[in-house]
């Protein structure tokens, strides 16, 4: 092959790589554009404070769904944060043990389980026995999805803490538990919190695991044994409905969801940048 | 050390809980689908009748739709993902790198339901317009038959591809990062062009790249909301890109709350069980490939690892 030809092939290849980046950014831009431009039209103060109106009556909001999403993600965090952080502590402290490898494998497996399957699992666990869709089941499903994310983040961040800090604590006569909970974990805590916030943002956007656990509710409720509305399920219900008015509400709901995710991602990014700066000194 | 035993057992118990959850998912799904497994056996996956009224269930169209849509999505997403990974890790100017990583991650952060909403009101009409604009000669091909509905395999595959790209490209990027710099330097020293040097790096990273693609496959198989909203939800086995079809995840999302009798519910849960098993196998395989890649790279680069990393 002549050099000229090889150079042309090389340039074409570089061009293809650059084009694929642009190609991936097109849908991102399109989705954001439509969500913002359509969503902003229906988004007003009423959206956050009013209840859904019956078909045919214009207006109304998603106050009950917003509260529902907050409750469900809160419940999810309640289940997932202790389990995730403590199992992350185990896999980083006893990194070489056989159980740690098994836990790591289980976390990766759980992370890959389709969210709808987790919904089916929790249905059998927490809906079927009580013959009632309920908020706790929804929170449990979201929690199961959060656990592996938090566990792996905790492990990675704990491994970043310099070993000398742990050794220093141990040399002063601290027990392992004391060294971890008073020295190592606090050092990694800001990073872990960032990971938890990111996990919360991801989980707040989940629909599939809620479809048959917390289901949906037209009314305002904080009763955890009752079905409860969530932003995502409400957007789904409205999106597949035949009513113009509901479509507008769906776009507004989507805008709120995207805003939550975006805000959390940007905050997390800024936080990690500051953390990195602190570590490097 | 005795005084640390409590700590080890205490945190280990939470780790064990993770393993138990995964085991419990498999066990529960198998238990709750027992009626269907017993009644239909392997025929469940070979027949296409889905008739809840007469209690006859065959899941072939669903598994077909899941595999077909995922493979199409993969065919679209794989070259683009690898292109992105190469651009970010090998070609892009340093200042662009972080923003590009952030933007591709954003693609993964957008909730599935938002993709679905966008799919219904923007993508589906666009696909419908493309189909009506197709010349008649093309429309007789088996890939393009059917009325112009917009909802169908094409819309599902496109949206899946977009959703899979960030996962595959992120892993491919990590894999490329683990290729020792000496590989590229050696190629350049021999007079290779940029493409030839990157090709050498890609060849070195091939196991990891395959792992990255499989990880994307696992994601596509289980994706629910966006696909449910655009695929048309019609159980049929068809090659046509424009035919409305159905996936395993979509039938769960649509019919689960309607399953009135026990056999119907068990048949649906069996679909969930098989989806669980398939994604389990695909994900495990992909982990093994990525992991083995990371290991050979580490073994092969003691000299590089000992040096300070280039800033």
From the structure above, extract its key features.
heterodimer, A: 281 residues, mainly alpha, B: 311 residues, two-stranded antiparallel ribbon, 1% strand, disordered C terminus
Strand-helix topology:
The complex is a heterodimer of chains A (281) and B (311).
Chain A: H1 3-42, H2 45-49, H3 63-93, H4 98-112, H5 115-127, H6 135-160, H7 163-171, H8 176-204, H9 231-239, H10 244-280
Helix pairs in contact in A: 1-10, 3-4, 3-6, 3-8, 3-9, 4-6, 5-6, 6-8, 7-8, 8-10, 9-10
Chain B: H1 5-32, H2 34-40, E1 50-51, E2 56-57, H3 60-91, H4 94-109, H5 112-133, H6 136-139, H7 153-177, H8 181-189, H9 194-204, H10 206-222, H11 225-230, H12 248-255, H13 262-300, H14 302-306
Antiparallel strand pairs in B: 1-2
Helix pairs in contact in B: 1-13, 2-13, 3-7, 3-10, 3-12, 4-7, 5-7, 7-10, 8-9, 10-13, 12-13
Describe the structure.
The complex is a heterodimer of chains A (281) and B (311). Chain A has 281 residues and is mainly α. Helices cover 76% and strands 0% of the residues of chain A. The longest helix of chain A is centred in the N-terminal third of the chain and has 40 residues, at 3-42. Chain A is globular, with a radius of gyration of 23 Å. With 311 residues, chain B is an all-alpha fold. Chain B is 74% helix and 1% strand. In chain B, strand 1 and strand 2 form a beta hairpin. In chain B, helix 4 packs across helix 7 (153-177). The two termini of chain B are 42 Å apart. In chain B, 49% of the residues are buried. Mean pLDDT of chain B is 90; it is low at 298-311. Chains A and B meet through helix 1, helix 3, helix 4, helix 5 and helix 6 of A and helix 1, helix 3, helix 4, helix 5 and helix 7 of B.
């Amino acid at each position: 092959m002549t050099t000229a030809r090889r150079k042309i092939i090389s340039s074409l290849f570089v061009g293809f790589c650059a084009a694929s980046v642009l190609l991936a950014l097109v849908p991102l831009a399109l989705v954001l554009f439509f969500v913002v431009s359509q969503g902003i039209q229906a988004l007003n103060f009423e959206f956050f404070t009013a209840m859904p109106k019956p078909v045919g009556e214009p207006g109304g909001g998603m106050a009950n769904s917003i509260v529902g999403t907050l409750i469900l993600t809160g419940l999810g965090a309640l289940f997932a944060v202790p389990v995730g952080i403590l199992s992350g502590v185990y896999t980083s402290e006893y990194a070489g043990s056989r159980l740690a490898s098994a836990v790591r494998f289980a976390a990766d497996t759980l992370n890959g389980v389709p969210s709808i399957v987790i919904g089916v699992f929790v249905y059998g666990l927490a809906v079927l026995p009580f013959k009632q869709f309920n908020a706790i089941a929804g929170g449990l499903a979201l929690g199961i999805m959060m656990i592996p994310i938090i566990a792996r983040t905790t492990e990675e961040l704990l491994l970043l803490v310099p070993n000398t800090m742990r050794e220093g604590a141990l040399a002063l006569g601290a027990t392992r538990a004391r060294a971890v909970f008073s020295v190592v974990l606090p050092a990694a805590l800001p990073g872990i919190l960032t990971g938890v916030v990111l996990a919360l943002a991801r989980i707040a956007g989940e629909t599939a695991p809620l479809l048959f656990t917390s289901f949906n509710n037209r009314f305002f409720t904080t009763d955890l044994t009752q079905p409860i509305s969530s932003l995502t399920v409400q957007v789904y219900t409205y999106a597949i409905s035949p009513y113009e008015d509901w479509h507008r509400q769906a776009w507004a709901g989507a805008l709120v969801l995207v805003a939550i995710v975006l805000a959390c991602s940007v905050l997390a990014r800024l936080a990690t940048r500051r953390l990195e700066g602190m570590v490097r000194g | 050390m005795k005084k640390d035993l409590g700590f080890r057992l205490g945190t280990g118990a939470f780790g064990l809980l993770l393993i138990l959850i995964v085991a419990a998912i498999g066990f529960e799904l198998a238990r709750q689908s027992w009626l269907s497994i017993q009644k239909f056996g392997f025929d469940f996956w070979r027949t296409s009748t889905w008739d809840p009224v007469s209690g006859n269930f065959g899941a072939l169209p669903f598994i077909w739709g899941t595999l077909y849509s995922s493979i199409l999505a993969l065919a679209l997403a794989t070259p683009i993902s690898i292109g992105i990974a190469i651009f970010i890790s090998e070609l892009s100017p340093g200042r662009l790198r972080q923003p590009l990583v952030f933007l591709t991650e954003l693609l993964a952060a957008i909730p599935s339901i938002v993709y679905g909403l966008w799919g219904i009101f923007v993508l589906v009409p666009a696909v419908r317009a493309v189909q009506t604009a197709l010349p008649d000669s093309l429309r007789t091909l088996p890939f393009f038959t059917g009325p112009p509905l917009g909802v169908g395999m094409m819309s599902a595959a496109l949206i899946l591809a977009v959703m899979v790209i960030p996962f595959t490209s992120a892993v491919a990027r990590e894999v490329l990062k683990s290729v020792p710099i000496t590989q590229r330097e050696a190629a350049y020293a021999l007079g290779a062009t940029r493409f030839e040097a990157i090709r050498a790096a890609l060849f070195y990273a091939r196991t990891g790249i395959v792992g990255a693609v499989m990880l994307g496959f696992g994601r596509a198989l289980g994706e629910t909301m966006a696909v449910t909203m655009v695929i048309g939800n019609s159980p049929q086995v068809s090659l046509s890109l424009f035919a409305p079809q159905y996936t395993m995840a979509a039938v769960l999302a649509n019919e689960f709350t309607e399953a009135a009798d026990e056999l119907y519910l068990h048949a649906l849960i069996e679909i969930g069980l098989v989806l669980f098993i398939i994604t389990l196998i695909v994900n495990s395989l992909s982990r093994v490939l990525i992991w083995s890649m990371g290991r050979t790279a580490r073994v092969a680069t003691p000299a590089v690892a000992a040096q300070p990393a280039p800033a």
